[in-house]
Target: Transcriptional regulator, AraC family
Amino acid sequence: MSIKTVENMVNWIEDHITMNPTLSDMSSYVGYSQFYCSKKFHEYVGITFKQYISKRRLSLAAMEVKNTQHRLLDIALKYGFSSQESFARAFVNTYGYTPGQYRKAITNIELYTKPSIFPLQNN
Model:
């Protein structure tokens, strides 16, 4: 699998992040098995497909919390959380603030950004 294919996987996830992307759908898109896509994704990105989805959803939701006045429930549902409570729980566990506290705070949090894919280095 080429680096370009892994970049295509990451880009596909980013394009579908609010549509409940699945490993099955992504692997169909790039034309490889789920197992192989999962293995290569983890190898190049450093975390699993599922972890990536979770981290990116929460980061994108945090940006929306800070930069818009959309209702927290609407943001939670947009990014795949089942309720505002589950969104708040995940937010507090990751960032130490509720979404409402973060919206009002002057502080910045460390968001998980879309990675750049580089070739593996052979040691």
